[in-house]
Specification:
single chain; 245 residues; mainly alpha; three-stranded antiparallel sheet; 10 helices; 3 strands; 58% helix
């Protein structure tokens, strides 16, 4: 309840939207876990129909989306006739992608080497944003492209596929899956509008790393290799205290 109140009174619409959507995703995941834990017939058919319905709803919602007030600090999107403000994010994304060409499209500009005053003095300011100079793309996925290019994006995509494989085929317990799913949902959704991928000290990024480690070290593959089979006496075995033998 405290977390809900703090999020609501923070005044951040992106934080509130992220919290609501992540909560809905967690509830839906709990529902699917319950279905697969019970002796219910046609589980896969049920899941397929449910996913098809969700995809159909998502298609109708996205088909109604269009950009509003691009190249201003008041830009946003219209969703089913309702305006959702992105406070200049669309303009920032458009500016970043426009300058992603040539060798930079494949290799990027390097870590923290694009959003600099030197870069702005070379390519000019963003249209419609005046003297505003952002420090990042306000999107983790666009920051991958800007800093590492399409090669980095491909490598990150392969890494995500590996994590998905561990999540579904790693023999994880339901408790581990539920914990990791919540952190993954928070990380991947919040990176749509914030650059958490490049901020190693951010709590969202830390929780993602924790969730990855949780899946990795609790997987059947790692347990089979005895990577985590540590014994308490190993650290003190054959130790000589105070120089005695």
């Amino acid at each position: 309840m405290a977390a809900v109140l703090f999020t609501y009174h923070s005044g951040s619409r992106t934080a509130l939207a992220s919290a609501v959507i992540v909560a809905v995703l967690i509830v839906g995941f709990c529902f699917l876990m319950y279905v697969y834990s019970r002796p219910i017939k046609d589980k896969k058919l049920f899941t397929s129909i449910l996913m098809a319905e969700a995809a159909l709803c998502l298609f109708f919602v996205l088909s109604s989306v269009y950009v509003v007030d691009l190249h201003t600090s008041y830009d946003g999107i219209s969703v089913m006739g309702h305006f959702v403000s992105l406070t200049g994010r669309l303009t920032i994304w458009d500016f970043a992608l426009e300058n992603l060409s040539g060798i930079n499209a494949w290799l990027g500009y390097g870590l923290d080497n694009f959003w600099t005053f030197e870069r702005f003095s070379t390519i000019g300011p963003m249209q419609g944003m005046g003297d505003f100079y952002p420090h990042d793309s306000h999107s983790g996925y666009i920051d991958i492209l800007i800093q590492g290019g399409w090669l980095a994006a491909f490598a990150y995509f392969c890494f995500v596929l590996f994590i998905i494989y561990l999540f579904f085929y790693g023999g994880l317990s339901p408790q581990v899956k539920l914990c990791a799913f919540g952190f993954f949902a928070l990380f991947f959704f919040s990176n749509l509008t914030e650059s958490y991928l490049k901020k190693s000290t951010n709590i969202v990024n830390f929780l993602f790393v924790y969730a990855v480690g949780l899946c990795l070290f609790n997987s059947v593959q790692m347990r089979g290799r005895r990577v985590l089979k540590l014994r308490g006496y190993v650290a003190v075995k054959n130790m000589r205290l105070f120089g005695s033998k």
